[in-house]
Amino acid sequence: MKNLNHKTRHFIVDPRSKFLILLLNSIFVFGGAGGAHPMMLPIRHVLIAIPLFFLLFEGKGKSACIAALGYAFFYIIQVTYFGLTKGLLNHMLLFSIGFFVRILPNVMAAYYLISTTTVSELISAMERMRFSNYLIIPIIVMMRFFPVVIEESNAVADAMRMRDVRFGGKKISKLLEYRFIPMITCSVKVGEELSASAIARGLGSPMKRTNICNIGFRGIDFFVFVFGILTIIVFSTTKM
Amino acid sequence: MIKLEDVSFSYATAKEKSLKNINIEISKGECILLTGESGCGKTTITRLLNGIIPNYYEGKLQGEVLINGNNIKTMELYQMAAIVGSVFQNPKSQFFNSDVKSELAFICENMGMHPKDIEERMRKAIKEFSIEKYIENSVVQLSGGEKQRIACAAVSTPNPIIYVLDEPSSNLDRQGIILLRDSIQKLKNQGFTIVIAEHRLHYLREIADRVIIMDEGEITSTFLAKDFFLLSKEKIEKYGLRSTSFKDIGHKSINKTNFLKNELVFENFIYAHKGQQECLKIDELKIPQNSITAVIGNNGAGKSTFSKCLCGIYKNSGTLTINDEKQKYKKRLSSCYMVMQDVNHQLFTESVIEEVLLSMDQENNERAKEVLEQLDLLPFIERHPVSLSGGQKQRTAIATAIVSERQVIVFDEPTSGLDFRHMKEVAKELKKLSDKGKTILLVTHDLELIFSCCNFIVEIERGIVNSAYPLYGNTRKLIDYFEIGGNAVEEKKVPVPPKKTFYLRG
Q1: Which residue among B57, B141, B313 places its CB closest to the CB of A161?
Q2: Assigned architecture for domain B251-482
Q3: N or C: which end of chain A has fewer CB within 10 A?
Q4: Chain B closest CA to A204's CA: distance in Å?
Q5: How far apart are CA B302 and CA B292, in angstroms?
Q6: Chain B interface includes A218 (CB < 8 A)
Q7: Shortest Cα–Cα distance, B386 to chain A (Å)
Q8: Is B308–A164 a contact, with Cβ atoms under 8 angstroms apart?
Q9: How far is it, in rounded angstroms, from Cα B161 to Cα B158?
Q10: What is the C-alpha separation between A193 and B96, in angstroms, rounded?
Q11: Do A212 and B359 touch (CB under 8 A)?
């Protein structure tokens, strides 16, 4: 979860719309629902473009552009050259296309959701979607915990280099073990402190939680929803 | 307000009792300072007061703990949260939200207050603690002191009547402590009851009303603060406590050290994090070989960056010359060593002996045992490093540094949150290493530790070396640096020194 300064927040999309974008991307791009029906093709491209466009407006143009270029490149290869190559090259192409054309757009949609939503917005959105507390609390704790794990992992990596435990150094067979064991013990400790602090601040009380952040549907959310409905209509016509 | 009657407690995982027959009565508006050696039970008491025990940490609780007339056994944690505000030791792990604003609203939101009401309370807290300028910030952008101030402000929003602070200063630099002291003073002025568990005592001189000293789960003595802060240095040390004042910190015992002629020369230590401004820019710095050098400076001044560059963890960062040998970062990865603040990051294996053998070029059991014996670790050689105490882990890391024949050893905050006895033990280890001919750099905020073992000082400010001088003859200067004077909450502008090279003086 990123912090967002108000300066960069001229473009606000409701977290529920972001969820919808992610869901649609998972089903129709990653899952490939609708198959190779010609009508699905433009729909898919719009689905892929939406999170990238929104990322552009949120000031994350660089990653959006890289993803868009990667997608475009491999998409063109897929429709032009694929099948003309053989052997290892073919396998590598297959793998790359699979990643860039199917998985990457989904990753970007998830990245968009996570990197542009504050924790409290997310809680608020999940509450309005009538998620149970039993689901919300684990999700937000997990979100809070990710950066901790990354930080601990980096510190361990530094120590490993200093102690010459690396590829080409000592004990290559134990690289994974040496990386994960300290990372896990340290993360568990931080996690324990984190939960102690959170419950001492009243998280998990049976009272209905309120929220000060203003989430709500705006014009842009309307567009996302209309497009979502359109996608489903097109999908059902392909089945007929 | 708070009443502990004959309270005993043992954690579910421990055999020993952490608290034995504790009786404390605290009246409204009092500020209590709980102190004592590590493991004396002061943190356990704070956990009882904010209800984390017995609701989160499980164990066997005997006796009665009454908060505002209510027994904690019958209260739920969320009810406690409304009357007791808790500030914890580690700013990194006590925030739940990534932005200051959500953090301020967090407790009230959890209690289901109306958003309008929450906004009103937030406005009040922001005004009370003068934190307007941080309100749009992300928590990671704040310094340690600012974080603790935000924590105080955040827990004040539901209007608790009791504040419990568990070692709030242990990660703070000089300015952080000034901010923290000011925050606590503000709470006290409003007439709240405050309980602080703490090692560092000097900053609470004018705030505490009563001081409770504990040892092994028992209260050994209770003082009125005005009497306590008059106690002599010897008495305080006998209790195993840190100095109550910088005046009698023992600088008179510092002897002149004759440094070796040889010097470590750091050249072009310049580093910038990806896409950011340079946070370290040292053109040239010389420190005597075989010295114990304290690297001081505020949080964010570039001390950690400097030590990481020194150990070669950051790439392409300057040249270090030892004994006329120029060392680039790759070479330094194997000639310098860092004992990290959280030693857990650098212990990988399943036993202490394996840990030491891993660091050797040629595994040599005899030599490993010899080093471990010197560090009093021989009885633990088959133990898993995770099961050791903090000090033992630290010594294990030192052992790995010794056997890998490193010339320079960097310690990153080895005594943050340590009591007097453990601090002295660390100082002893450092001196031993220095006697063996190692050059030691010590990143620290701990003035007592510096006086216990260091002989050279490097002061870093905003990525540049502000000054470098031997400790002997400059103790006054150092004390002035650490002294917390007046209400200097505003950040002082440190003039950039015109000279870029620092040579030895004296």
Answers
A1: B313
A2: 3-Layer(aba) Sandwich (3.40)
A3: C
A4: 7
A5: 19
A6: no
A7: 8
A8: no
A9: 9
A10: 11
A11: no
The tokens of B302 are what?
A: 């570039």
- B333–A contact, CB cutoff 8 A: yes
pLDDT in tens, B226-256: 999 998 888 888 888 888 887 766 666 677 7
Least CA distance to B409: which residue of chain A? A162
Overall residue count recorded for chain B in this entry:
506
Q: Measured between alpha carbons, how far is B178 from B491 in angstroms, rounded to an integer? A: 10
Query: Chain B, 26-55: which have a CB under 8 Å from a chain A CB?
Result: 50-52, 55
pTM: 0.81
Residues near B132 by Cβ (< 8 Å), separated by ≥ 6? Answer: B126
Paired tokens of B325: 């040998």
Whole-number Å distance between alpha carbons of B52 and B356: 38
Using alpha carbons only, what angle is made at residue B227 by residues B224 and B229, rounded to the nearest 5 degrees? 105
B2-238: which CATH topology?
Rossmann fold (3.40.50)
- Running along chain B, 506 residues long, what does each successive block of 10 average in pLDDT? 92 88 94 90 91 88 91 87 90 84 90 92 91 84 84 92 91 85 92 93 92 93 93 88 77 72 89 82 91 89 89 88 90 91 89 90 88 88 87 89 89 85 88 90 90 91 90 85 55 40 36
Residue ranges per domain, chain A? 6-118+215-239, 132-200
Q: Do B340 and A155 touch (CB under 8 A)?
A: yes
Residues of chain B with CATH 3.40.50.300: 2-238, 251-482
DSSP state of A84: S
Q: Are strands B278-288 and B70-71 parallel, antiparallel or unpaired?
A: unpaired
Query: Residues B23-57: pLDDT tens digits?
Result: 999 999 999 999 988 888 899 999 999 888 888 88
Q: Whose structure tokens read 């992992």?
A: A153
ipTM given for this complex: 0.81
Of the candidates B56, B111, B112, the beta carbon closest to that of A199 is on: B56
